[in-house]
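Progress report, Aim 2. The chain analyzed during this reporting quarter is listed below.
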Amino acid sequence: MKPKALITAMCVSIATVILILFMYDYLGRRAADALNSQGEGAERLNIRQQFLQELSSKEQLSQASVQQISGHYDVKVKDYYVKVTYKDEPDVVYVYDKNAKEVFVLTHILAEGASKPDDPFKHKHRFSPVP
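Predicted structure tokens for the chain:
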């Protein structure tokens, strides 16, 4: 092999390795950012406060009845939602979204045992969508 061709092949190989390492690092960071995307902290706190205000004003339920509340960001729909656990139902998590009218609506009920009927859930009527 000619020395010039050998040097060219080595340069192309080194450039390829550098490009692969750069892409690996870049794609890894982008994937980690996408997986860890929780939304802005202030917005997550804001959605929690909005929910608690509506809970007390529209549902006449105090903040003391809530065991746990957390604001989350949904990457797919690019919007925030809240997960709520009430003190009288510690094993059930209610998920509420805001609809187009900026009103909270119950979207999911997460509970142990997917075969449970809807009847035992005490708070399923809160922010239920109107038919």
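The chain is about 40% helix and 25% strand. The mean pLDDT is 81. These observations will guide the mutagenesis work planned for the next reporting period.
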